Amino acid sequence: MTKQIILQAFDMTAANHNAHGLWKHPENRRHREYKSLDYWIELARLLEKGKFDAIFFADVLGVYDVYGGDEKAALRDGVQVPLNDPAFVIPAMAAVTKHLSFAVTVSTSYEQPFHNARKFSTLDHLTNGRVAWNIVTSYLPNAAQNFGMDKMVKHDERYRIADEFLEVSYKLLEDSWEEDAVISDPETGVLVDPEKVHRIKHKGTYFSVEGPHVSEPSPQRTPVLYQAGTSEKGRDFAARHAECVFVGGPTPEKINYYIEDIKARAEAYGRSRDEIKAFTFLHVVVAETEEKALAKYDEVKHYWSADAAKAQYGGSTGYDLASYENEEELFTYKHTEQGQSRAAYLTKDAAKPFTVKEIQEKFSQPAEMDIIIGSPEQVADKIEDFFVRSGVDGFNLTHYITPKDLHDFVELVVPILQERGLYKKDYADGTFREKLYGHPHLAAAHPAKQGKRLGQN
Amino acid sequence: MTKQIILQAFDMTAANHNAHGLWKHPENRRHREYKSLDYWIELARLLEKGKFDAIFFADVLGVYDVYGGDEKAALRDGVQVPLNDPAFVIPAMAAVTKHLSFAVTVSTSYEQPFHNARKFSTLDHLTNGRVAWNIVTSYLPNAAQNFGMDKMVKHDERYRIADEFLEVSYKLLEDSWEEDAVISDPETGVLVDPEKVHRIKHKGTYFSVEGPHVSEPSPQRTPVLYQAGTSEKGRDFAARHAECVFVGGPTPEKINYYIEDIKARAEAYGRSRDEIKAFTFLHVVVAETEEKALAKYDEVKHYWSADAAKAQYGGSTGYDLASYENEEELFTYKHTEQGQSRAAYLTKDAAKPFTVKEIQEKFSQPAEMDIIIGSPEQVADKIEDFFVRSGVDGFNLTHYITPKDLHDFVELVVPILQERGLYKKDYADGTFREKLYGHPHLAAAHPAKQGKRLGQN
Which of A105, A214, B122, B151 could be bridged to A84 by S-S, CB 3.0 to 4.6 A? Predict the structure, then answer.
């Protein structure tokens, strides 16, 4: 069977996500309706109609306050603010769907593993195993300030914290409750067999968690694990823990290079390369004809806000573009305490510096990477070409006019991809992990499965 | 108009809450279905049909491990374990209701104020202003161990932490965003007016939070505030912050005494006594006839588990009843680091000690306080009598066979209370706070409103 595209809607429970300035478009609804359950319920139904595998919720825990030295530009254009907690729309969306899954971002830098484990166990129970956790270590300096720190923990240490956070999570989610701990036998009067529930007694460098976990084993136990780091530490972390990774790059071939790199690293850790699915972004402007699509793209450019794009870039890289001269050169990776790598998306060659002027020009238009623009057939052609050449398993589909663009994609592009056999006509049964990998729990070679079972010596 | 009863269902997203052993009853469904959205959606519809004002979710962050020195008794009988995070059923229940409100417990001892403020802003947006926060400082020693502490913070310090937690919360929820900060004007291109969003710059003893808040003002801004402390510190805290308080006591008159005490304390803080509503528990066993109700109560007693009750008592008071002799006397308030006061429910006179044997006997039957048992008319009579004599504003209705008992109450008792004018026939419009007090935001005299507005000098 032809390999089929895994499709996710890339979203955020905010007035605006990455479609900077597009809230001004007369047909955009999200900035007004993101606060209402009805909006998300309607979206869930649309995505399930379009056989989307999942909706992926990004998240941040502060404001973008680097560009120009404060958060004014970010507020003015609504750069990921105002923003709600993404996890709470999931139960309402799950209630009206059967197959759509939900990936939600949680930072290991500002959350407690015990809270987080209970949150994901709960969501996994309520959705019948349709949740995924996008593991991030957070990049906004303002987020650190919101959680009692004067400045951010350094990049490498953030990954050490994340590693221990995962270790605690595995102990709670995988090891604390044996599969048959819940008996519910009215004859013997035993609801839970106390011999099958174990304290985890974790005492580490960053966390101390006694346990036991309080939630019983959920369909997937550990949610499907996503990770998006592109730094050296980030890719190493992904190779050990992640089941789905995000890979960015200037060309399909470069993306393929990164995918192979992560899969090779995973193999070096004893995992199967097939237990990692790779995703990249997909930017589409589609309409009934090429002419209409180009006209739609003109509208997108018309409403685009370069200032908002720079505000987001500032918060996510630490570079304040307002404080550099045009001809100054910036390196792809900013080697600071923050150690961000977002600038990698901007250049074909990660080792080559670029000028501030080049970046400014990049942000004057609506995407850092190529946008696929055209008629439904043209768009399907380009998606197919990109899919084959890059070797990705799936896409995170962005949108400019929300939710209209998702609607158009479902109506115009999905049927063609289905016709070509590149996209499913029906969902597979089971949990999200079963749909992706055919088994409900983490693979046997995953590090979460390597620990000695608690209480079983 | 006659004062009307405010009615809440007392619940927990756990296999069992306080109906110890009743999961064994053949008609009990909760222990099997609490993990499913369908269960909570059905319950939401039932409660709105019965014109319940709210569902109140208790919560704990650990296991009951004092009785017998470990958590075995608690696990065996499912004493508030297995347990999910209560907040996540709210959006799905809100989506199928219009008026039912949702009170959810969050501990100020183990949560971060920034996370918590965003959580409640989100829930308040998604429910159109139908959320309340039950503020607790937590009593389980195991919870402390799950959040990196070897033992619990002492009782009085927990309240100092709670005070500062509330201060930060008010700054984020009330002061950070001015009411008209969100402009959404495509003409000027301004989504949020940056001059009307303020950093809170909180630097205190326990928390340091820079802000600004990331969520825009929700219908109620601050959720309706509940508090249940009965200790000296707890009542003082309630008098300052709470809009709804829980009061326990052996007789209606004793409950009335506590209510008057808290209202007097609130007045001393410059608040109106009318801005505090008092609740107590309501235990009911009702059936079509008195005979059937007594038979139903026999079933409740048959399935009751004294061991489970002792396990819960152990965790919430610190007293391990397995380690005392029958004739030993325990004082109502245990003056330990934990400083719990649950034992107050057990005696008519708070200053009088009671023997371990007396407590053991108390736990051999299904309630610490009187259960109202009888035909619908008999139950309505007793509720009316209790309501008038105690001066409470409302009840937290418990249930033994779940959700059957709530069903029976809605079918059998609600119509009679409505007929007598003691209970509403229709909901009032608006947010939860508007339904309770006629205004959407905290009252002007509430301490949250006394702070100098940020950025406005």
Answer: B122
Contacts of B305 in chain A (CB under 8 A): 189
CA triple A58-A63-A68, angle to 5 deg = 125
Q: Are B39 and B310 in contact (CB under 8 A)?
A: no
**Is the per-residue pLDDT at B90 higher than 70?**
yes
Using one digit for the tens of pLDDT, what is the confidence trace for A205-226? 999 999 999 999 999 999 999 9
Q: Give the tokens for residue A201.
A: 């007694």
Q: A143 in helix, strand or coil?
A: helix
Instruction: Pick the range with the lowest mean pLDDT from A253-267, B29-43, B77-91.
Output: A253-267
A79-87 average pLDDT score: 97
Flag whether pLDDT at B342 surpasses 60: no
| B399-433 confidence digits (pLDDT tens) | 999 999 999 999 999 999 999 999 999 999 999 99
User: Which residue among B92, B112, B142 sits closest to A91, beta carbon to beta carbon?
Assistant: B92
Query: Is residue A237 exposed (0-12), middle (13-18) or buried (19+ Cβ within 10 Å)?
Result: buried
Q: Assign 3-state DSSP to chain A and report helix, strand, coil percentages, each to 5.
A: 40, 15, 45
Position B208 scores a pLDDT of: 97
Cβ-proximal residues to A253 (8 Å cutoff; 6+ apart), any chain: A389, A390
Q: Shortest CB distance from A146 goes to which of B92, B123, B209?
A: B209
DSSP states along B209-261: E----SSPPPSSSSPEEEE---SHHHHHHHHHH-SEEE---SSHHHHHHHHHH
On the 0-12 / 13-18 / 19+ scale of CB atoms within 10 A, B352 is exposed
- CA-based nearest distance B202→chain A, Å: 9
Find the helix or strand (DSSP H, E) in which A45 lies: helix A37-49
| DSSP-assigned states of every residue in A356-391 | HHHHHHHHTSS-SSPPEEE-HHHHHHHHHHHHHHH-
Measured CA to CA, the distance from residue A446 to residue A275 in angstroms comes to: 9
Q: Do the strands B244-246 and B224-227 form a parallel or antiparallel pair, or are they unpaired? A: parallel
> Who contacts B411 (Cβ-Cβ below 8 Å, separation ≥6)?
none
Are the beta carbons of B147 and A112 separated by less than 8 Å?
A: yes
The residue among A88, A110, A152, A221 with the most chain B CBs within 10 A of its CB, best to mutate, is A88
**Dihedral angle over CA of A356, A362, A364, A365, nearest 10:** -170
| Spatial separation of the C-alpha atoms in residues A169 and A213, rounded to whole Å | 10
Are the beta carbons of A23 and A14 closer than 8 angstroms? no
